Fold these 4 entries.
Entry 1:
Amino acid sequence: MKTDDLIIKKRDNKELTKEEIDYLVQGYTKGDIPDYQISAFLMAAFLNGMTQVETANLTQSMVNSGETLDLSSISGIKVDKHSTGGVGDKTTLTLGPLVASAGLNVAKMSGRGLGHTGGTIDKLEAFQGLKIDLTMDDFVDRVNKHNIAIVGQTKDLAPADGKLYALRDVTGTVDSIPLIASSIMSKKLAAGTDAIVLDVKVGKGAFMQTLDDAIALGHEMVNIGDNLGRKTIAVISDMDQPLGKNVGNALEVIEAIDTLKGQGPKDFEDLCLHLGANLLLLGEKVETLQQGRNLLQQKITNGEALEKFEELIKVQNGDYRAIHDNSKLPTPKHSKTLKASTQGYISSLDARKVGLACVNLGAGRKTKEDEIDLSVGVELLKKTGDKVKKDEPIAKIWYNEEQKLNDALPVLDISYEISEQPTEDKHLIYGMITIESNPGELDPIN
């Protein structure tokens, strides 16, 4: 096989075979094929697209480029949830223990945040002493004993993805649905779970800006999962405005705990219940989504979900006392209130700008090497649709350094838009995608 022949074949919009895709991916991962040739291949795939079979084969080849986790010694069905990234998205912190309290196995590998989106591992490290680097034996043992373990992603899983993404980032080939889908799914499939629920975000704070693109990505990933033998469901949810009210690592931990107590914001609780019901359905714990929602609501009401979260933090050596005493979490020194410039209704709350304001405070990373401040962030006192009076507090900024406050304040200020008339209620969940869904369409929420 010759690399230039395969580039020409893809340039001419012909389908590559599994063996040809393997040749390109494995050759590049090992360093046998140079950047400039794979860049040409990526551009051809970007311009011409890829078939479902090609995308599935690309994903499988990326999975095969490194180690895969063998979770066969965990009894029962193993599930995972993946979000395509957003602002205030602390879903794993609540959802994991919630479904684990219903007896479902959650074997979760999570990452850190970069840019305006937050990372689950960063948030968990708000618990002093928490260990996220577990051996494979410890990881499996914790899931078997406690139904849940959350660890950091390893570079040995799907290493081809890291190399290919870095190249896409500098060659203008990031915004390709097949390449995005294969990147996400390669890591999920390498992690060894049996079933996956995908939370595909759409809106100003999401990677996918339009509903059509989010639907296309959801279908692509569900098709990959089906082609490679994993039960997969995609849920399309809104990220025009942040999820919940708290943005920032320790602040989001507090909100996740409040939700497990039944005291969290409605939008965040609703999303957790819906995603959780889908996980229970795939995990064969319930027969309908409504049964799943009812079961999870019961676990919140009777306290078992919160107990499972405490169990998770405790067995991974974190200071679980912080669940009941927020002062044991990282705490900022100062706060400042942002007030409404006029009376009216919040017509827009730009999730991306809120996320960037938090990055300026130190809550997120601008580069992978940056250290973050776990204590700082923003509390959104008013969100889209809320009525406000002039000079009424609409947000509270928690900070440690005056200069970082000065960098964040103007960005947060312009994230809010106020109009004279109320706006229409936005969808939180637009719909779902299963392998039975019609191409390009969403199924309604049951």
Entry 2:
Amino acid sequence: MRRFKLAFTIVLTLAAIAVLIGLGNWQMHRLAWKESLLAAIEERRHQPPETSEEIAAEVGSGAEIDYKAMTATGTFLNDKERHFLATRDGVPGYHVYTPLQLSDGTFLFVNRGFVPAEKKDPATRMGGQLLGEQRITGLARARLAGRPSSLVPDNDPVKNIFYWKDLDAMAASTGLPQEKVLPFFLDAGPEPVPGGLPVGGVTEIDLPNNHLQYALTWYGLAATLAVVSGLAFLRRKR
């Protein structure tokens, strides 16, 4: 009976070690994937800017366009800007998304940047309400498939306060025909505007890369379990 228990314990211990090593290997695979993704994003950001037409064609073909350098030319519909709750250096405020009407009759929502909460009303920052044809350069951003998390509040189009980029809701709340709204966004670059607001260049590439730390943790647990089990086995044998 004792031999059976010992054999069972050894098998269980070896299985646990194998699982821990497998988890470590999985994190190493994730590390390689994340580093490749970050490298691809860095490359996209520093390539020559593509036009909105080129980005739209790539979206139609299923290509990845997130964080690609791009440019678009059109006229801002300043009376239809949408406001997304945000902070900048600890200051509460909003990111201003304004539709840009392109020459072909389509519309592109542009994240023009940050304004503090007391400047939410466009009437308080009229200098930044650009008129006439504008050429905007920045980074393309993919639309979201759905709400990022159940913890994210529902958007409130009536009060013009958004918590996540629901492109369909944004188009509907402005009265724009959804079939004419391009299925991606443009984050404007840091070029200053008259009056200083909105403050552009707010794109954050926040992709945590802790996979090496996790892998070392799993490998460390496997090694610790192996050492402790080995010492226990030797003590029992003696």
Entry 3:
Amino acid sequence: MEAAPALIPAYDFGLVQMAEDEFPLYQALVERLTGIHLAPIKMAMLSGRLAKRLRARGIVSYADYYRLIADGGEQEERQLAIDLITTNETYFFREPKHFDALREQLLPACRGQPMRVWSAACASGEEAYSLAMTLADGLGGNAPWEVIGSDISSRMLAVGRRGLYPMERAHHIPPDCLKRHCLRGTGDYMGQLLVDKALRQRVRLLPINLIEPLPEMGRFDAVFLRNVIIYFDSPTKRRVVNAVAATLKPGGWLVVGHSESLIGTPCELEMIAPTIYRKIR
């Protein structure tokens, strides 16, 4: 009896490759929507992150998916794509010297006054909660302080609002701080931690695109703008830094990532330590 022929899928979505003439379409779209410039070396990363959406929608080319999310296309799918493209790895108390400086220098100067801090690219919220832990320990849980976190990714903000994270994200949380502000998961939540509800209630997470006009949020004593402007071209970087610096109180701090610099950026800031700048007036 002759063997039945193997059934072969009409199209193997796992083999979809982005063509070189398709990449510039996404490059222009991402830069216009987010300010992020994707170098050609990022083509493999881009196609890998979007491949799951092609499979989910039954689309057989990146050109067809681009038409789905471009202007006039599906807004919800476009947001999903932006979430996938812009998501970056983060963890609690990343670049810990910034939190040391906040605790040792800025908090004593603001003690007794309402204090507001903005985590301007908070991803899934770990930086915002790290700031909240620092303020709670340095000023007290009942002191008048507030942390705002923002990100362009609605999916990441949803993770942050839940406050549930894998334990491997917590390696840099000091043990006593971890004990005060987090609950260790058990049973189905083994290997995870939950940020304490009292701390979560002091943190507001908002959807904000830094390259668009900023909403009215009041003035801040410190803004952490870390590991984001490195992805912008020079004009976009200047525009974003100036807009963010305008939200600072006189004497307020703007903190950028250790791989970033504000040299050549025209704004009313003076460097007081590497990657930490103070608003002059």
Entry 4:
Amino acid sequence: MTARTPAPTTRTALVIGGGVAGLVAAMALHKAGIEARVYEAYDAHSGARGGGDGGGRGGGRGGAMTIAPNGQQALEAIDAAETVRTIGTPVTALALRSWTGRHLAQLAPPADLPATRFVWRTELHEAIEAEASSRGIPVHKGKRLLDATDTGTGVTARFSDGSQARADVLIGADGLRSTVRALIDPSFPKPHYAGTLTFTARVPKTELPSTEGVLYMCYGKKAYFAYQIFDDASAAWSVNLPHREPLTQAEAQAVGAGEWLKRLREAFTDDRTPAPDLLADTSPEDVLITGPTETMPPVQTWSRGRMIVIGDAAHAMSPTSGQGASLASEGAVQLARCLRDLPVGKAFKAYESLRHPRVDRILKHTTATATATSAAARTATPKPAGPLSRALRDALLPVATKVGGAGGAVWGAWQFDHRINWDEQVG
């Protein structure tokens, strides 16, 4: 390991987007000796955030998500892993079931890694924002980016409220519909509707037994259903409901949680899984309508001049991958290391060289797993799997998930055991 340069040539950074990727990037830059300021489009009272957060009540907790071991290791590199450990509930394994209740597979992560953590998105965001604030990182809200000018020596950002900000670099952590991505290259692909609407809920009380840390994914007869029941008798569930016509989040919310809950109960009437009982235990006020699922073709170019995108703005992951926030955290930490050790142009090239192979492999793996199992691909289309497709899936899935030995095709060690050496010099 060679000695690191005493001070980065990049002194200041504008981070567009106050979600997980943006806040982690700001903390990593701060640790690298770079002054970072975060600009978030939504204000403090909107109840919604960029990058797909917010929108609906859901018990005030936002949607459910998981932070994988590699995401926790990335946070460990910047001394922030405790924020997830404090609020998260361990997920010891992932279990797959058919709509008949048949057990198809159970996949456990490597035992020597931190347990995957189940978290509520809002609680995670609040915890990370509080940690960033404690480190003296300013987060400016109500700052929707309109445009940015790269002068060759810095970037000036212009916001919808008429204000401006300038720094050495601009980092777009502004989610699937990234404004920064469009500034880098207007021809970048746009998100596509994936054929389902997503709903999440926290059930305060259920009579069903605890799943003892196991997160269940059920390939229902008409829709996909995931759930976990906790030791305190509360539970969380998520549904991908096929819907032929695309609806915006606002349009889906206008239908009303009560009406959607009625439709969800009808969709799972025939399923012999805990889905009917959990839906029966759910009140409309606890349902979060998170809106349409969307996919985006891979983006190969992440930077131009002094602007770069990270997280969902660069590589949107399927929600079923469980890697969205974790890969975003990895990328945020690695970008800070690159800017710490190299001039901007070389730093961005080094970052893309570091990240593209890993991100591309996980994207390819997620697609291959969905195709191999047949089930995941079916949940992303408006047409549910038919009887023959379900029979083939249930026969092949137990075999497919055993490929590669312990951990199977989904929970392989190569995804989760990804440690970042903060002190190692880049380049």
